[in-house]
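Hey, quick one: can you model this chain's 3D structure?
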Amino acid sequence: NLQLGELANNVANGVDTYSIMQPLGVCAGITPFNFPAMIPLWMFPMAIATGNTFILKPSEQDPMVTMRLVELALEAGIPKGVLNVVHGGEEVVNAICDHPDIKAVSFVGSTRVGTHVYNRASLAGKRVQCMMGAKNHAVVLPDANKEQTLNAMVGAAFGAAGQRCMAASTLVLVGEARNWVQDLVAKAQTLKVSGGTVSGTDVGPVISCSARERVEGLIASGVEQGAKLVLDGRKPQVDGFEKGNFVGPTIFAGVTTDMRIYQEEIFGPVLVILEAETLDEAIAMVNSNPNGNGTALFTQSGAAARRFQEDIDVGQVGINVPIPVPVPLFSFTGSRASKLGDLGPYGKQVVLFYTQTKTVTARWFDDETLSHGVNTTISLK
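Sure thing. Here's the predicted structure for all 381 residues.
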């Protein structure tokens, strides 16, 4: 239904205008390490359903989940050659951006790589959508349900070890809610850090040695710049995984907007806390940050929630929902520095992205008008 065109009958005497949405041809997707099943599923099912063939390049850091997903898709009956996988790093990404037969490129990943993909593929004449980095703020008003808010924030900040572009990595405590820091620390300390295969694990490892080193370096910079490290998760002792790439839940209070831990996406289990006097001040803080992937407000005030959703300049807004990723019928609508391209993944927007709208204006004459009374027959072969 989302691919239905439109028809205007008799826009002039005997003239109809209608639009049809046709597939582009070959489309491609470049996906990150953190959700090797979910993010490809934003791409190839919709591209194929709208009539295209698809080339998928999974992250070289964990390609096997994506490969299994593609195997299942082929088992389910996708014809040979319709869904394809290529592997590699920068060289393969550049080949996708440059290849003349590829008409559209979807990307989810870092801002650095996404900007490169968007610029290079756009210069090659392709349609491009890039969902990139984030610094998602959760704003807490003092009337919020305290227990629910703290539970939500711990899960949203530290789940997946903070390795998601929709992580609630930045907390803005408004008014009396500024007294909740120690309660949040106590809640975070209850989380279990271990391997993902261990029962009851809340926080697993980060993806690589270099990722761990980068997160630890950013934590060190926060200390150096004067933030208050109220929970230090560096180098946790994890039985059975002594050489693992683990960082435990880490919380900074007293953070200001000029600090690296605020300005950069940490992509690890690190929560930075800022303070505001009023909701207006918090909204201004969120809108001043260049990123616009997601934000959330915790409150029991409908008036405050409505004010927030209207004034906030962020693509996806949660009201008492910490990670407002929409269900697939709705498009992922990150904005500003978090997104390049007009149309987002899945939902209605991605149908427009993977199709070309063709508008036809048609006028037909009856036989008598066409032949001035002489019957004619046209043979179509």
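One thing worth noting: The chain has a mean pLDDT of 95.
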